[in-house]
Amino acid sequence: MARYRRFGMGWIVGIGLLLVIAMPLAAQDGGSSAPPLFATNTPPPSAFAPPDAPIDRYALRLWDERTLSNLLLSQVRALRLRDGERQLAIQLLQNELRRRFPSAPSGLDARLELLNAMLLAPRGSVDMRPVVRPYIEYILNQEQPSFGSNLTFDHEGFTLRLTPLQLDNDSRADALIHIQYPTGDDPSPLYVDYVLARVDEAGIYRVLAAPESPAAPFDNIRSVTLERLGDLNSDGLDEVALSVERSDAINRELLIYGYRGGAAVSLVQPGERLLYGEISDWPLSGTTLSVREYRVESAAWQCYGERDVTWSWVSNFYRRPTTQGNFSFQNRLGCLLYGAEPIFAMPVNEAIGTIEELLPLAEPEDAYSAQRANMMLAVLRVLNADISSALEEVNALADQAEPGSWLAGQTSTFQDAANESGMTPLKLCARIEQADEYGACDVNQLLARLFVEQPLRRDEPIEAQVSRLGLSILDQVTLTAVGRLDREAVRFDLGGDDWWAFAPLGRETYTAEKISAPPGYESADAPTLLLVPSPAALNALLAANDPEAALNALETLATRNPGVPLASSAQYMRALSYDLLGDRTAARRAYYELWSDAASSVWGQLAAAHLERR
Cα–Cα distance between 416 and 56 in angstroms, integer? Predict the structure, then answer.
């Protein structure tokens, strides 16, 4: 437990933090005693108001730590669930604060105020590492725990679990610290982190964490867990391996950190990521690490490829081999069905038999693949004129479906379509396919097979023949090209933009092929109305701290999309990049224009905050 008697005024601040964290957000917002947002002689601009004077009456704001920290605090307090714009704005403000004032907020009171606001923000929406880690260092220097043995203690809602390590060859013990907020066994903690710590020669506790070392939850990082610690490369020193799970990836990432040159550094080959689905072999003593890496082969079937990769400790880093094996399909139902594609191009009975032969191989983890296969079976039975069996199968699947799931959407689409008058098997297939990105039918495979099995004849109008197949034509045009026979191109009423051409290559029949839309019939894609910051621009500014590269990425984005204006977020990034590069004239103009054009947006407000009236 925390030893409060050591804290003096720090104890009062700690109790204050605990009380504020417990207060409802609305109560905090209404009764905050935070310093004014703009701590300068220039009054702040009115909320949501555009500039009230020409640009030559404004200059770039001369920031001090308190003013910029309070601007960040105000944005964190205003953040609400699913407010992606403000979430990005906060990331950019945090980056700017680190560049201008690397230790900010340096005062304990200011740090606690910002930390409290972050803990009240939507879970996983704010990067708390720059605030939590210095605070943990403060706690360590107040508590002065021994690093000589395992130790767990709580402090103002945080749980700290200390594990002894030997990071270098001196006589002092070091530690790995597992940080969690709140205390206890909360299944959805607001903050989980692992940092290295040591005590320097002056007896000062230091938290060591590589800048890229993640905490969870934040953005797409779902969890960070300890995979292994100890001597991980046979060099006689301790290292730490952390496993990072991301919501948008099938592989986890293994991060390996050691203490080198007075800092915590990554021991994975620079420019590489150690990705793995599972660890195959990692000897407790040795210099190799074998993992199984996954790759998506078919998202529709949830089929993954896998390969084994052995990383080796060479020249101070874990390095991947220069040559690597190919990915091979997993022996799972989804991959077996994906390997059997194109299923709807097969004769119907053959397609049904293929699925029915593979379905008994399903394991419990193949539930989605089995559901998709059964939906395809239902559509195939409709094509085989076995309507009652198809409906029976779909109704049984609907009873199993979780609300909002892929299966629920597919079964309800089938049931609704089956009740419509004039519904044909081809139209049903098209409806199922269009209901979801991974809909359980492929109408073009069906048409390709149909036009081979029942080719259209040249001695009868195309429209009359396809009508007997349950199709009608929405658009028809004759295609002429030098050196080719004229072809009739048609678009069917199947809800999509696909076109088929019929060439008179046979003596009595047409040869059908799927084609691109003829000139003048191209699908009008929704125009790009605004250019949002590209991943390259965001990475340059937020990860690489390279505003010049960010400007180049934004310029490239604009060049590739002539005539399309930058979104307010991209305009702000451009203005900030000018500002950080010291181009005061361009920065002032860019901030002023953004403030003028989008005063009511978060970006216009931040632009206004970067200017002050002369």
Answer: 64
- Which pLDDT belongs to residue 285? 85
User: What is the residue extent of each domain of the chain?
Assistant: 4-22+44-319, 343-429, 445-515
Mean pLDDT to the nearest integer, 236-251: 96
265 closest CA partner among 315, 192, 208 = 208
Beta strands in 205-274 (DSSP E): 205-208, 221-230, 239-246, 252-260, 263-266
Angle at which helices 425-434 and 443-453 pack, to 10 degrees? Answer: 150
374: left (phi over 0), alpha (psi -120 to 50) or beta: alpha
Hey, is 164 helix, strand or coil? strand
Report how far residue 435's alpha carbon sits from residue 38's, in angstroms, rounded to the nearest whole number: 52
Rg (CA), the chain: 31
Instruction: Extract the tokens encoding 4.
Output: 């409060």
Can you tell me the distance from the alpha carbon of 136 to that of 160, in angstroms, rounded to the nearest whole number? 9
Task: Please state which of the ranges 37-46, 47-56, 186-195, 346-355 shows the lowest mean pLDDT.
Answer: 37-46
Picking from 29, 25, 186, 36, the residue whose alpha carbon sits closest to that of residue 119 is 25
pLDDT given for residue 171 in this prediction: 81
**Mean pLDDT for the chain overall:** 90
Q: What's the burial of 82, exposed, middle or buried (CB within 10 Å: 0-12/13-18/19+)?
A: exposed
What distance in Å separates the CA atoms of residue 565 and residue 576, rounded to the nearest whole number? Answer: 18
Within the chain, how many helices (H) and strands (E) appear? 19, 21
Q: Which two tokens stand for residue 356?
A: 């029915």
pLDDT of 245 > 60? The answer is yes
User: Would you say 246 and 222 are in contact if contact means Cβ atoms under 8 Å apart?
Assistant: yes
| d(C-alpha 379, C-alpha 402), whole Å | 21
pLDDT digits (tens, 9 = 90+) for 31-61: 333 333 333 434 445 557 899 999 999 999 9
pLDDT in tens, 509-559: 999 999 999 998 887 666 668 999 999 999 999 999 999 999 999 999 999
Identify which of 383, 386, 452, 440 has the alpha carbon closest to the alpha carbon of residue 414: 440
Q: How confident is the model at residue 9 (pLDDT cuts 50, 70, 90)?
A: very low
Q: What is the DSSP letter of 218?
A: B
573 pLDDT exceeds 90?
yes
State the angle between helix axes of 333-340 and 348-358 in degrees (0 to 180), rounded to the nearest 10.
160
Q: In this structure, are residues 214 and 128 in contact, taking their beta carbons and an 8 Å threshold?
A: no
Tell me the CB-side half-sphere exposure of residue 328, using CA atoms within 13 A: 7
Contact between 177 and 264 under an 8 Å Cβ cutoff? The reply is no
Q: Does residue 368 surpass a pLDDT of 80?
A: yes
User: E strands of 39-173, at which residues?
Assistant: 58-60, 151-155, 158-165
3-class DSSP assignment, residue 588: helix
